[in-house]
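Reminder to self: tokens first, then the designed residues, so the page reads top to bottom the way the pipeline ran.
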């Protein structure tokens, strides 16, 4: 009876250990709007903060999954910083008619990410740090009036356990920015504006842009293959033979 009790306790400890240290699972995971092998990734929402209503560096991004009612329950990428802005590309814009595309190239350094366990995706879970995040956005102008904004982006990161992942997003579109008359305010169901230290920006710096991320691919690389744990079920059984 005592051996059976000890065996039960050991099994419970093993299950608890596995649940507490769920590793990221290698594979390619996609959002519902981009069907693939694992189309369970939620679409997202993002904000990019700045120092003044229409400009100012540094800029800090904050991206989170969006379930339709909850932000950040499945994934987060945030806190990357663009220290200095690159001048826009006006090569597809006609300054005489005020019609065409204005292209913006942004490069953010650093930041953090988190993938949370969700059976709908099956990617395990993990947190880590981001490297370089590149965002390309285009604003469509007609007769000097901006009528639409779209963006694509890509980043990569290293999990705390040492393996890597890639995160790409496309078909995003801008929803609003604080420079739009009459000085729009970001809705509360978009990620908060962040300060340079990754804390929420104070009330006097609620400036920036916000938008939707609709097409996502996350690749957890093969170097994330789960290593053999020291405390396997076979090891525990051998103790009580």
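Designed residues (241 positions):
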């Amino acid at each position: 009876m005592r051996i059976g009790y000890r065996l039960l306790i050991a099994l419970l400890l093993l299950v608890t250990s596995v649940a507490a240290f769920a590793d990221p699972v290698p594979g390619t995971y996609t959002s519902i709007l981009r069907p693939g092998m694992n189309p369970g990734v939620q679409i997202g929402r993002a904000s990019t903060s700045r120092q003044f209503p229409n400009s100012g560096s540094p800029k800090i991004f904050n991206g989170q999954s969006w379930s339709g009612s909850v932000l950040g329950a499945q994934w987060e990428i945030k806190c990357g910083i663009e220290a200095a802005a690159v001048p826009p590309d006006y090569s597809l814009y006609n300054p005489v008619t005020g019609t065409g595309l204005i292209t913006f190239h942004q490069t953010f350094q650093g930041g953090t990410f988190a993938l949370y366990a969700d059976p709908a995706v099956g990617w395990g879970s993990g947190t880590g740090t981001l490297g370089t995040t590149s965002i390309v956005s285009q604003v469509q102008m007609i007769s000097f009036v901006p009528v639409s904004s779209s963006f694509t982006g890509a980043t990569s990161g290293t999990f705390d356990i040492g393996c890597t992942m890639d995160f790409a997003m496309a078909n995003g579109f801008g929803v609003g920015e604080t420079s739009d008359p009459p000085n729009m305010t970001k809705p509360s169901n978009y990620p908060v504006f962040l300060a340079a230290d990754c804390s929420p920006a104070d009330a006097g710096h609620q400036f920036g842009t916000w938008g939707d991320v609709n097409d996502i691919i996350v690749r957890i690389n093969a170097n994330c293959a789960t290593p053999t744990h020291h405390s396997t079920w076979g090891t525990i059984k051998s103790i009580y033979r």
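The chain is about 10% helix and 45% strand.
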